[in-house]
Design brief:
Layout: H1 4-13, E1 21-24, E2 32-33, E3 37-38, E4 48-49, E5 53-56, E6 66-74, E7 88-92, E8 104-107, E9 111-113, E10 119-122, E11 132-133, E12 144-146, H2 154-162, E13 167-171, E14 175-181, E15 185-186, E16 197-198, H3 201-211, E17 215-222, H4 226-239, E18 242-246, H5 256-264, E19 266-271, E20 274-275, E21 279-285, E22 288-293, H6 297-315, E23 328-332, E24 344-354, E25 357-362, H7 371-376, E26 379-383, E27 394-399
Parallel strand pairs: 6-7, 14-17, 14-18, 15-16, 18-22, 20-24, 23-25
Antiparallel strand pairs: 1-13, 2-13, 3-12, 4-11, 5-7, 5-8, 6-10, 9-10, 19-21, 21-22, 23-27, 24-25, 24-26, 26-27
Helix pairs in contact: 1-6, 3-6, 4-5
């Protein structure tokens, strides 16, 4: 067996960052910038009001309460057709351009308009600049907005749109194919025959890829036929940036996937000192990374978490400190037993955050075939070799949600 970090480093070394591309901001959420973004204009582009109310000269309301003549109205999106003179006010809507002559806005709650709409009484004095958002207050022209390696969130995309930037150079989402193989696998709700099981891994991995920000590609389920498996793998390699398979990676397995990959790729078949997910295959086929994940459903998910997700994040241009989930500490509310076997265990646990700490309990059965416990789990508890932590002890966690 090899240590977890050694296996992770081997996988990461085989994955290259994808070439950058120009991406529409409508498709860029979660991507990583590949360029420096500089503001081409001011945000906001002009002085505007933060409130509905009246634009005034602050000196005219210094002795409030005071009554002023209403000189007009300015709506958002319209150029002012009036200005504020001595003893005057202009009705103004949120976001509207401040009319010439005004240096403050009185919010509508501090005013009362006359019955004929010709005058307004201001109840309270306001200082110059009151409720005015200045041009460039958020961003100045030429200001650095985002640096390379910035992960684009909805807020980032809003900033780009506010600057009139609708395309950005970023690292694209990897297209990742998922292939299931096996005569025993069944797709669909029909009754199972003797020896058949339903194909759950493919659906799980496709969902994990989407959650990780990749573009999942369903390569379907192929029977145990060497020619068909080779054709499916080659088709996936030709159209995808990476490929995931599950099953057939244990020591002693004779599997058509293993045979085909050994023939057409440069694969490493590893036994990693972890539980679950000890067996792992990784290599390159025509420079495309191929991940051979274990067939047991929990092992497949844990293997993706420890190897697939970090490697794909590297391919997406993420900074190295964001390839892996960073452990946090939790406190166990019950024993989390394990046995000594020279492996690092990843227990499926439920986590509750209370009074500033994560409280941890088992999510259920810990067998690598017991997928329901993985579905209930909020985290993986990292259990060093030994008897396992007792209730009240601290344990590192990889939070899954």
């Amino acid at each position: 067996m090899i240590p977890l970090t050694e296996a992770q480093n081997k996988v990461l070394a085989g994955c290259k960052v994808l070439p950058e591309a120009v991406v529409s901001i409508t498709q860029a959420c979660g991507l990583v910038t590949a360029e420096t973004v500089v503001a081409p204009e001011l945000v906001p582009p002009f002085d505007n009001t933060a409130m509905d109310g009246f634009a005034v000269r602050s000196q005219d309301v210094a002795e409030a309460p005071v009554t002023l003549a209403i000189a007009g109205t300015v709506s958002a999106g319209a150029a002012p057709s009036c200005e504020v003179g001595q003893g005057e006010a202009v009705r103004i809507m949120t976001g509207a351009l401040i009319p010439h002559g005004a240096d403050a806005v009185v919010m509508v709650e501090l005013t009362q308009t006359s019955s004929d709409g010709s005058q307004v009484t201001v109840a309270k004095a306001v200082p110059a600049g009151n409720h005015i958002r200045r041009a460039g207050e958020d961003l100045n022209k030429g200001q650095l907005v985002f640096e390379p390696k910035e992960v684009l969130t909805p807020g980032h995309l809003g900033v780009l749109a506010s600057l009139g930037i609708y395309e950005v150079r970023a690292y694209p989402r990897p297209r990742v194919g998922v292939l299931s193989t096996g005569d025993e696998l069944v797709e669909g709700p029909q009754p199972l025959q003797a020896g058949q099981i339903r194909d759950s891994n493919r659906h799980t991995l496709l969902a994990l890829l989407a959650e990780a920000g990749c573009e999942p590609v369903d390569l379907g389920c192929t029977p145990d036929d060497e020619v068909q498996i080779a054709a499916s793998i080659r088709s996936g390699i030709a159209s995808c940036d990476a490929l995931l398979t599950s099953g057939g990676v244990s020591m002693g397995d004779y599997d058509y996937v293993k045979k085909v990959l050994d023939e057409i790729g440069d694969m490493a078949w590893m036994q990693v000192a972890i539980k679950p997910a000890k067996p792992l295959a990784f290599g390159l086929v025509d420079e495309v990374p191929v991940f051979g994940l274990p067939g047991n459903p929990v092992s497949s998910m844990v293997s993706f978490e420890l190897f697939g997700r970090p490697a794909l994040r590297k391919m997406m241009g993420y900074h190295p400190d964001r390839w892996h989930r960073q452990p946090v500490l939790g406190n166990t509310t019950q024993d989390l037993p394990r046995h000594k076997d020279a492996k690092l265990h990843f227990a499926r646990v439920k986590v509750h955050y209370s009074n500033g700490e994560y409280l941890v309990r088992s999510a259920g059965g810990q067998g690598s075939h017991q997928l329901s416990a993985m579905a209930y789990a909020d985290a993986l508890a990292i259990l060093e070799d030994g008897e396992g932590p007792k209730a009240g002890e601290t344990v590192p966690l990889l939070l899954l949600r």
